[in-house]
């Protein structure tokens, strides 16, 4: 009447790990979509921003460049994490 507990515990471990991997993948995918939408929203709203602030195309280009450069530099410490 010996019950082998180790096999039942070990049998659940791969399922749990697989679920954690799946949830992590879905969350990272959703974060990537939000990241893309966040970066592209400035370009989509460009005409409204230009007209509201009275910016020329060159000035708006500087604004986009400043955003892109600051975004790029912020990725350096984020990459370490």
From TrEMBL:
PROSITE patterns: MFS. Residues 24-81 form the Major facilitator superfamily (MFS) profile domain. It comes from the Bacteria. Keywords: Cell membrane, Membrane, Transmembrane, Transmembrane helix. It comes from Escherichia coli. The chain crosses the membrane at residues 20-37. This is MFS transporter. The keyword Membrane applies. SUPFAM superfamilies: MFS general substrate transporter. GO terms for molecular function: transmembrane transporter activity. The keyword Transmembrane helix applies.
């Amino acid at each position: 009447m010996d019950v082998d507990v180790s096999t039942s515990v070990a049998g659940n471990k791969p399922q749990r790990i697989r679920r954690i991997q799946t949830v992590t993948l879905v969350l990272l995918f959703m974060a990537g979509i939000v990241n893309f939408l966040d970066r592209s929203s400035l370009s989509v709203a460009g005409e409204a921003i230009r007209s509201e602030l009275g910016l020329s195309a060159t000035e708006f280009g500087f604004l986009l460049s400043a955003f892109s450069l600051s975004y790029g530099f912020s990725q350096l410490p984020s990459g370490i994490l």
